[in-house]
Write a structure and sequence with these properties.
about 220 residues; alpha+beta; 6 helices
Length: about 220
């Protein structure tokens, strides 16, 4: 099947909600996409499938998936009771050339300012991938309070990166937003700033939303 690019937010949401209760196997067959045997070795496959189905436009550019609409697409694995099974990757973190970077011009903000969440229901977590089903999609924008907390997390983490404290950052830093290593293997190193301002090599890092925060988002949508 060929997927067209949605022209409006309402068209995108309707298109995503039309997938509700469809299995991953059905979607993969319709769009002729091979199903991997193990998601651990094919990270990002689920998101790529939904990008194909919904017709994203950004490719690999550092902008929202639906660039014209300013909307990022995020799939999120959940239990039948709506509990997220893992944290959600947002984007890679800049470890050098951070001068002049602000919250509002950061890639994190661009990705977080409006998200189309597509839940993928699995029970139990070991369920066969093809049998998992698509939940009801929802559009989300951070409230003023949520944005303030996300911004505070981002500023704390970016300050530590800029001051050469990358090695001191753990997954415990940040209320909603955390910084974690993101690399295929331990040899995939990149450049960062050391404590004395010297260039060092380290693992790439990524910004992630904590599962407790995404659960709040999903629960809030159910109450509306």
């Amino acid at each position: 099947m060929i997927s067209t690019h949605p022209q409006t937010t309402s068209e995108l949401l309707a298109k995503a909600r039309a997938l509700t209760s469809m299995s991953v196997g059905e979607l993969a067959r319709l769009w002729q996409v091979p199903i991997p045997a193990d998601l651990h070795k094919s990270k990002g496959w689920m998101g790529q499938l939904l990008e194909l189905v919904l017709g994203t436009t950004s490719g690999n550019k550092p902008q929202p998936d639906f660039a014209e609409l300013g909307i990022e697409l995020k799939t999120i694995p959940i239990t039948p009771l709506g509990r997220p099974l893992e944290s959600t990757f947002i984007c890679s973190a800049p470890l050098t050339q951070t001068l002049g970077l602000t919250w509002r011009n950061s890639p994190v903000y661009q990705k977080l300012k409006k998200i189309l969440w597509v839940p993928i229901i699995t029970a139990p977590k070991t369920q066969i991938l093809s049998e998992r089903t698509v939940g009801t999609a929802m559009l989300w924008e951070p409230s003023e309070e949520e944005e303030q907390l996300l911004q505070a997390d981002w500023e704390e983490l970016m300050e530590m990166i800029t001051l050469g404290q990358i090695a001191q950052i753990t997954a415990h830093h940040g209320t909603y937003l955390q910084l974690r290593p993101k690399a295929a293997h331990a040899r995939a190193l990149c450049k960062a700033i050391g404590e004395d301002g010297e260039p060092i090599s380290t693992l790439p890092r990524g910004f992630y939303l904590r599962a407790q925060f995404t659960q709040q988002i999903l629960q809030h949508d159910k109450r509306r």
